[in-house]
């Protein structure tokens, strides 16, 4: 075996081992990286139960900041995979917001390539493997990219094992989407390098695949940064070489990637069109946490200067995960070392670091997309571009370490380490002397927290200086390299362990008596909670229990407006802005009955003639709504309204009987006495089949959300679905006995699918052409 091949294989294996070692101690304990402890420790009905010896309500929560992986991405992926396993397209989610698109919400990520794991392993195990695999692939792809930049194998390993444990990657590790999208960046850049050097059908397909997978992995903002970075890297190489070789192929790959991702992009863009995203985000630029606060750049060298949410002592601007740009003390020293050589090779990454940092900070340039309301971009939180900042710093750190390995050691190597140490010591001195400048946040002594969390960065900095002194004393270079790896990994592993929660499989959405009771009731029905701490939005979906609330960056604007009116009982108050979480809690509203909310969950004893307590578990009480309307029922009339606002006013009017009447500003149906009956024959996430009997033509009301793509068939013949009661469904049923079928088949999905097929066809044709040209 050639030495170069051996070095490559050895580097890949070593990179894989060093990345896996981070997870290994927890895997031995049967734990995976997921914050299931937040479920058991923060939310009822889980808090009503005892787990692993802890008394009810006392289960410890490692990091209360991290709840979204279980409240959002885990539940959506579970629903997606369940639908696919049942042979259904995962298009609709009936379990949140009284129903809304599933595939189109982006974060359900049905086309993420690692989803194959869910068809091999049980879901919980597959989730853990997937999260760990994203870190390993991040490091492996980074190693290959750094090797292609002609760095030494050990320097490439150094950079590769840094990246998955930097601040951005650790902060978003457990989501299952963000890192799954970000991990393709180094492989994308490697593909561009290869195509610029020599046009190849294989590397063309790899480039297309990486760009597509970044888009399909569940986090568009991350994919936008990956694609933008890759495109500007391509332009940089083009300008640098002034050679068009491979340029057309690379440009074609970007175009084809967008087409292939069309099956996700088109439905999601349609959903965004009807969502409240722009309303929710409109006021964000005024928030202190929208851009990266300049003072939080301290986290480059001292990640926990402002405390750490996992230690319940965070006193910085909320929130920690959006700002932490830590790459390790020793790697940061090597970033400064890379500047000593002033190589043109590092120019792009220096510029990338500078530009990404500028765009993360608030300034006239970074505010342009938000002032001008650039579509999609203006709804992205700019601080998250630190992904590109930490990536570029990691590349520079690898260059610096390579310089250290290949050059004769000179005294100037001390300068970067001394600079970092001086900065840390100055920061410590300032913190010590400025006692009155640090806030007392509740019971948190900010100054003490800051000083305490400067100890380790200073220690690691001193240790590195000591190693350089030993090197001058002719200590073996191999020992010094080993020591550098050890303190770097100790620093990064410690940071990762401190922030990241790990949980046993049995702690992930365990069964409770409350969930078992609700799941056993005859469907369909919905639930409503009077407190966010009780069955938090999206939790019920894992147990296939439908809810009127929901938690998603994307939700229908009209549903938000409906809930605004619901909560205020004022049809003039319909803002629709809830900042991602909609939790209607007014249980005595007529809308509760209309939305088929049969069960109310509460901590309180509710005295109401319309509610009866039917179940209790610990502090959780379940009440049955005696006035609930069935999910499907016949109305005697549809009253014409002048506008959708008047529709809201009518359905809130006490004199308007929702059990016999509906309203619409688009059409009407004259009042009549009817004898009618309707029963569900089939009820699934994507398809509803009903049997109806009526003595005359009558409107059937379905309290499911009206959204483009729902189709209705009467005895196999397609019929129109009308929008009634502001945003629900109705079809006109002829006299007699009929079978009525509803299914969700949005045109946007199929239009996107056609684009994907076209893109795949184009990619295959180009790769065949390139292959034939190679062997011609």
TrEMBL record:
Origin superkingdom: Bacteria
Record's keyword annotation contains DNA-binding: no
Lineage: Bacteria, Candidatus Curtissiibacteriota
Keywords from the UniProt entry: Membrane, Transmembrane, Transmembrane helix
Membrane-spanning segments: 6-24, 125-146, 152-185, 197-216, 222-239, 246-266, 317-340, 347-365, 385-401, 413-433, 453-472, 479-497, 752-771
Name of this chain's protein: Membrane protein 6-pyruvoyl-tetrahydropterin synthase-related domain-containing protein
Record's keyword annotation contains Acyltransferase: no
Organism (species): Candidatus Curtissbacteria bacterium RIFCSPLOWO2_01_FULL_42_50
PANTHER family in the cross-refs: INTEGRAL MEMBRANE PROTEIN, INTEGRAL MEMBRANE PROTEIN-RELATED
